[in-house]
Design a protein that fits this description.
single chain, 452 residues, alpha/beta, Spore Coat Polysaccharide Biosynthesis Protein SpsA, Chain A, 7-stranded mixed sheet, 17% helix, binds uridine-diphosphate-N-acetylglucosamine, binds calcium ion
Amino acid sequence: MNIVILAAGQGKRMHSNLPKVLHPLAGKALVSHVIDAARSLAPRTICLVYGHGGDAVRTTIDAPDLRWALQEPQLGTGHAVQQAMPQLSNAPTTLVLYGDVPLIQPATLQALVHAARDALAILTVELADPGGYGRIVRDATNQVVRIVEQKDASAEERAIREVNSGIVALPTARLAEWLSGLSNDNAQQEYYLTDIVGLAVAAGVPIRTVSAQGQWEVLGVNSKAQLAELERVAQRRTADRLLEQGVRLADPARLDVRGEISCGRDVFIDVNCVFEGRVVLEEAVEVGPCCVLRNATIGAGSRLAAFSHIDGAVVGPDGVIGPFARLRPGTELAAGVHVGNFVELKNAKVAAQSKANHLAYVGDAIIGSRVNIGAGTITCNYDGANKFRTIIEDDVFIGSDTQLVAPVTVGRGATLGAGTTLTKNAPPDTLTISRARQVSISGWKRPQKANK
Ligand code: UD1
Ligand code: CA
């Protein structure tokens, strides 16, 4: 089949400089949801009709399997499909999707395409409030005879609750002929794709309707309010899928997945967590409230306490992270690592059982096993121009409030005394300390206020 995705409309009601179809839903552009649904049907051709904000749409979305047709000016949905004609193959069926109807499901489209083998198939839905949509007009024998747009409808027709989703499938062989038969003699002076229904009826081609699973599936985005509404629908569907897989969610209404999440058995996710990009939570992981995870893998049995922020990092099994921990890109923690409050790790490889429990910055570092990093430890990895590496070998104990001025190595089993500013390598199995000697001056008196 051919698939045409209409995405040339302006989206005035979004009040945005970003073209409508590029607005994100669940972390992905609206039109990308539609393209993914299209791809799942393995069509011969996918052609996007673009126009308003065209270059931005094309450059952001382009991929080798997509064809593009520019519609300039935009004279209606029928005119839009006409622009795609030169790009289409002679595959028997052509399916028309809308770039701003993101939650359309592959199974529904399959049914529609099946229905279109010898007919014009229209995806319809019953709405309590059909305002704004094209209405499906049926005759006394319940056959569809035409679609009438809201602006062209009589009062009687406006009372019809079955509406056109806009998504149709039809025999490709008829398409060119029907499109050239359209006129713009209507309230909006546009070439309506919906008018092909009347042409099909006249040609004796049967009209079939297929209904959507739910109205959410065919809801379009025309405003920020509708975008927010569909975001909730998409999130609720993700939450339901996770629950079905056995994930325990403290509240399915307070979960945001803006990408892909995969969970092992017995995972628990507390409220208000945000997951972006690709996130993997292995078996029995617990995520505390208000955590943000982006492109992260969390090993089996690890616990993330409240307000932890994890970006581009891997946490090994049985880790204990947070509250208020920040793991930045390139961080890899082995098994049983503890990272406590107000500890920031960047591009740091930490071997098993090491701990940094309070207030530390560890960047561009390689840390061995069973290392203890005291409160207030800082790797000084940046001299204002270049970055340098810190190496801390196994079984090292770093006292509190220590600065490690990189490049520097702390040898296996070494201890650094509290307050040390390390500028040279510390030898293994030795106490290294840099600290002004403590003196106590006996007989010293505090200054007194001068008597006037
Ligand atoms: C259209 C249908 C209406 C249906 C409704 C469902 C027509 C005439 N009407 O109305 O029956 O109930 O969708 O949402 O088809 N587009 C272009 N080029 C154009 C005009 C539109 O690419 O010249 C694209 C838009 O970007 C959008 C889609 O087509 O993705 C629908 O356009 P829109 O103007 O929103 O159509 P409606 O008036 O809502
Ligand atoms: Ca619309």
